[in-house]
Write a structure and sequence with these properties.
About 25% of the residues lie in helices and about 30% in strands. It is built from one helix and nine strands.
Amino acid sequence: MAATAWYGYLRLRNVYCRWRMIQAGARVGRGVWFDGPGEVRIREGGSITVGDGCNFGRLVHLKVGGGGHIVIKENVKINLFCIVEAHRLV
């Protein structure tokens, strides 16, 4: 029973993290998994695109300046405490 409750918590946390990225303006593919919340900042004119099957560790920060773009292809793993910042294209 405890394992089922824990899995439910992990799924709910994943849905919340996905929702936060989409609310910030990012495009998120299918099957993306978040190990914990991070930070997403997109200034006007910037964009973040995440491909299918990606995995984000805890406390990953994605920051895009005006006119910058972050493109993460399919099946990419970004480990915890990683910061990706773009003012042009990454």
